[in-house]
Write a structure and sequence with these properties.
single chain, 365 residues, alpha+beta, Aminopeptidase, 4-stranded antiparallel beta sheet, binds zinc ion
C-alpha cells in the first residue's frame, strides 16, 4: 500500500486539474480529477468504473519518451488488482493466478505529438469515442490497456504485460524478449489487443506465421463474435514473442483509422469483446504452433533472393493478377511494404539491383 500512496502523490503533482469531455449518456459534463483515487472521475451514477477507466486512459496523450508516461505507468499499476513490477524499459508485468500460460499484451504509448490531456467526445448514435483537434484518439492502444485492466480486475488468470515503445518499433516488447525471456517461459498463448476492426484473429505478422489456424478458429468459436483467422497482420508486440511463445496473435479491438485525427473506438464492440473474453474456456483453445520451427510466410514467396529470379521464379504470365493487387496495396501502405521488403532481405542497394534486373528482363516497363 505504501507504493500506491507514493504513486498517487506523484500523480497529483503533475496532472493538471482541467478536464472536460463528453459523457456518453448525458452529453457534455465537466469531470474532475479525484485526488484520492488518482484518476479522473465523474458522478458515479452517470458512468460505471469500467467506463471511467476507458475514458481515463484515452484522455491522456502519451507519446513515447514523454514525461506523462510516468503518470500513466503509475495509473496502470494502481488500477491493477495485484502487485506489478516494472523493468528498466518501463514495461509493466503482473500475474493474476499462479504460473499462467496465457499472456495478455498491450502498449501504452501513442503516436501523439503532444502530451497531457485531450478532450474526448462520444457519438451516441454510433457509440464511438473520438477526438477533435488532436493527432489521434490513442485507442491504439489505450483500448488494449483498458482490456487488460478489465480482464485482470475480473480475475482472468494470465500474465499481463503493458509495453512501452511499441509505436517506435516494438522496443518494449523487444526488450522483454531479448533481455527478460523468462517472462515468457511457460506461456503458450500471447494475445495483443492492437488490431483495428471487428473480426480479426491475426495468424501472421510481417508475413510470418505467429499463430496457428487451429488456435485462431478455436478462439473464435469461444468468443462467438464472428472473428476469423487473419493472415495479414503487420506487427505488434506479440510478434516479438513469436520465437518463444507458440501462439502469438493480435485481436481486433474495435478502433479504426488509428494513427490519425479520425481515429475512433467502437465502445459497444469493446465492451462486448470484454464480456466474450470473460466467458472463454481457455482449455478449449488449441495450442498447435511450434515457435522453434521457421515457417516461410505466404507459402513460397518470401526469402527468395535475387538469384531466384534466374530460375524462372518470377513468371509474369502467372503472377500479373497478384502483382496488380499487391501494387495497389503498396501504394496504400508504403511503410508496411518497406518493412516487409527489409524483412525479406532487401535493403536499398538490393532493391535497386533487383529493380534494374526487372527492367532488363522487361518484366516491368
Ligand atoms: Zn498499436
Amino acid at each position: 500500500m505504501a507504493v500506491r500512496t507514493r504513486n498517487i502523490h506523484r500523480a497529483q503533482q503533475t496532472i493538471p486539474q482541467r478536464i472536460q469531455y463528453t459523457n456518453p449518456r448525458e452529453g457534455h459534463l465537466i469531470y474532475r480529477f479525484d485526488k484520492d483515487l488518482g484518476i479522473l472521475t465523474s458522478p458515479k451514477s452517470f458512468v460505471d468504473n469500467d467506463a471511467r477507466r476507458l475514458f481515463a486512459i484515452h484522455q491522456i496523450m502519451r507519446p513515447h519518451d514523454s514525461a506523462v508516461l510516468e503518470n500513466v505507468r503509475d495509473w496502470i499499476q494502481t488500477q491493477l488488482p495485484v502487485e506489478s513490477y516494472r523493468d528498466s524499459y518501463g514495461n509493466i508485468v503482473c500475474d493474476v493466478g499462479n504460473n499462467p500460460t496465457i499472456a495478455f499484451v498491450a502498449h501504452y504509448d501513442t503516436v501523439h505529438y503532444d502530451q497531457g490531456f485531450q478532450t474526448l467526445y462520444f457519438d451516441s448514435d454510433k457509440e464511438e469515442l473520438f477526438v477533435r483537434n488532436s493527432d489521434c484518439l490513442g485507442a491504439d492502444n489505450g483500448a488494449g490497456v483498458w482490456m487488460l485492466l478489465e480482464l485482470a480486475l475480473n480475475g482472468v488468470e494470465a500474465r499481463y504485460i503493458f509495453c512501452d515503445g511499441e509505436e517506435i518499433g516494438c522496443q518494449g516488447s523487444n526488450y522483454l524478449a531479448t533481455h527478460r525471456p523468462k517472462i515468457l517461459s511457460g506461456i503458450d498463448i500471447a494475445i495483443s489487443f492492437d488490431r483495428k476492426g471487428y473480426e480479426d484473429i491475426v495468424t501472421h505478422q510481417m508475413g510470418q506465421r505467429t499463430a496457428s489456424d487451429e488456435f485462431a478458429e478455436s478462439l473464435a468459436e469461444q468468443l462467438m463474435m464472428d472473428h476469423m483467422p487473419d493472415p495479414t497482420g503487420v506487427f505488434t508486440d506479440t510478434n516479438e514473442f513469436a520465437d518463444l511463445v507458440p501462439e502469438c496473435t493480435n485481436i481486433s479491438i474495435g478502433f479504426f483509422s488509428q494513427h490519425s485525427p479520425n481515429e475512433v473506438l467502437d465502445v459497444n464492440y469493446i465492451f462486448r469483446l470484454r464480456d466474450a473474453l470473460l466467458g472463454v474456456d481457455w482449455e478449449q483453445v488449441r495450442v498447435v504452433r511450434n515457435p522453434y520451427e521457421v515457417t516461410l510466410p505466404w507459402s513460397t514467396s518470401r526469402n527468395k533472393s535475387f538469384d531466384d529470379f534466374d530460375s524462372g521464379y518470377l513468371d509474369p504470365s502467372i503472377h500479373w493478377d497478384e502483382l496488380n493487387k499487391l501494387e495497389r496495396l503498396v501504394e496504400e501502405h508504403p511503410r508496411e511494404a518497406a518493412f516487409l521488403l527489409l524483412e525479406a532481405g532487401y535493403d536499398e542497394p538490393a532493391f535497386v539491383d533487383a529493380a534494374l534486373y526487372l527492367y532488363d528482363q522487361k518484366y516491368v516497363a
